[in-house]
Write a structure and sequence with these properties.
This is M20/M25/M40 family metallo-hydrolase. InterPro entries: ArgE/DapE_CS, Bact_exopeptidase_dim_dom, Peptidase_M20, Peptidase_M20_dimer, Peptidase_M20A. By secondary structure, the protein is α+β, with helices and mostly antiparallel strands. The chain has two domains: about 290 residues, Aminopeptidase; about 120 residues, Alpha-Beta Plaits. The chain is built from eleven helices and 18 strands. The strands form five sheets. A six-stranded mixed sheet has the order 1-2-6-3-7-16, sandwiched between helices. A four-stranded antiparallel sheet has the order 4-5-18-17.
């Protein structure tokens, strides 16, 4: 008996068929491989997550590198481990695939470490249907397995053999070793060799919609120390004693809040303390302060960060901050010190063109168009170190929630969606003129 489909279903079926027809036979093969190897991908994710690799667990980071090394070697990559002893970090895994001479050179970026150190109670992977819960399940072990799933799909379809690909998996993305001239030297050099950079950190989803990321803001830490003349509080504001260290600190912080705001800038005071004594611990996360209500405070310390969208904005904000700090209250002085930070990845025409290429693939896969993500909704990352030299896209890893918390959970279905997108994008870029 002939069955009639509801009128609303027919357009959906035709749209799916039309989208599938837009894929080449090799691209259909890649999509099929990703689906067929889904359980293998999830199994590898569990294996990686179950091995702690907090940034300062140097042995753990190396063990994760040892786990993924054979995955790349089986695909024809030459793999090298670059120790980072000088930067007091574990090191980086660099995998290189030589393809067709003259083809576009692709740089794939991810990281091996997590924010959860060896003493964290959050250690193991748990699967509940299409959700995976565990440290680094999304950030960024999920991104690493998406990368590998995409490369395996390319290998099965025959598109990997001609592709020129360099992979840099850093071991300290969550807390980069210093100096950056050492800890990011290999990544920066790879960026100068590349034509395109693809960042396999997590996919951003807003309102149920996958978003395209073409920018990441910088992050830079600062430490402010103010000093004043100490003595009995009855003499505060006098010509001989002045305003004290805490009022000078308050003046500066209030001026930051009033005078710094501009589009795409955020700044934060994360830690503050003052009194007769105030000592910032070596880890930068604790201040031991002591004083009394009837003593003019001699010292105050604050620590914070700021985030910008372009090098020009960073320079402008630093200049404003220094100018504010320099206008001292009577009897006080202040010192503002900036630490090494992550540079910004500004939105560019080249980055937008890459997102347009990805949206062509979305249309061919029958997926919704990915709008640009507001850069205010994304933190800093390793791709920013190469952004001045090469066009790039961010967020080719899976969708997850609760990153950097014990609630970190990855959407396992997004592993497939992202691996298909990445495999087709890399294949098309590799043969592009």
């Amino acid at each position: 008996m002939r069955r009639w489909l509801p009128a609303l279903v027919l357009p959906l079926l035709f749209a799916t068929a039309s989208a599938d027809a837009a894929l080449s036979p090799q691209e259909k093969s890649m999509a099929a491989t990703v689906d067929a190897e889904y359980e293998r991908t999830v199994s590898l994710l569990q294996k990686l997550v179950d091995q702690n690799s907090g940034t300062m667990n140097l042995a753990g980071v190396r063990k994760v590198a040892d786990m993924v090394r054979p995955e790349f070697e089986q695909l024809g990559f030459r793999v090298e481990w670059k120790p980072m002893d000088r930067a007091q970090r574990a090191g980086h895994l660099i995998a290189t695939h030589a393809g067709k001479r003259g083809g576009k050179r692709l740089l794939l970026i991810g990281h091996l470490d997590t924010v959860f150190e060896a003493d964290s109670p959050f250690q193991k992977f748990e699967r509940n249907g299409n959700r995976g819960h565990g440290p680094g399940a999304g950030d960024d072990k999920g991104g690493v397995v998406v990368m590998l799933a995409a490369l395996r799909a390319m290998h099965a379809a025959g598109t990997l053999k001609d592709a020129n690909i360099e992979v840099v998996l850093t071991g300290d993305e969550e807390d980069a070793g210093s100096p950056h001239a050492v800890s990011r030297a290999d990544l920066i050099a790879a960026g100068k060799r590349a034509d395109v950079a693809l960042d396999f950190e997590g996919l951003s989803v807003e309102g149920g919609q996958d978003m395209g990321s073409i920018a990441r803001r910088s992050v830079g830490d600062w430490t402010l120390t103010t000093r004043g003349k100490s003595g009995h509080s009855s003499r505060i504001f006098s010509e001989s004693f002045g305003d004290g260290a805490v009022f000078e600190m308050a003046r500066i912080i209030a001026a930051f809040r009033k005078e710094l705001p501009e589009p795409n800038l955020t700044f934060n005071v994360g830690l503050i303390g003052g009194g007769q004594a105030a000592d910032l611990a070596a880890d930068g996360s604790h201040i031991a302060a002591a004083g009394k209500s009837n003593i003019v405070p001699a010292v105050a310390v604050a620590k914070g960060d700021f985030r910008t969208l372009s090098p020009e904005q960073s320079e402008r904000v630093v200049g404003k901050m220094k100018q504010i700090v320099a206008a001292h209250l009577p009897g006080t002085e202040a010192e503002l010190v900036f630490e090494e930070g992550y540079p910004p990845m500004a939105p560019t025409a080249g980055n937008r063109a890459l997102l347009a290429r990805l949206n062509e693939i979305n249309a061919d896969l029958g997926l919704a168009k990915m709008p640009e993500l507001d850069p205010l909704l994304r933190g800093a990352g390793d791709i920013s170190f190469v952004a001045a030299d090469v066009d790039g896209l961010v967020g080719l890893g899976p969708s997850s929630s609760g990153d950097h918390t014990p609630n970190e959970t990855v959407d396992l279905d997004s592993l497939r969606r992202q691996a298909k997108r990445a495999a087709i994008l890399m294949s098309r870029l590799s043969v592009a003129k």
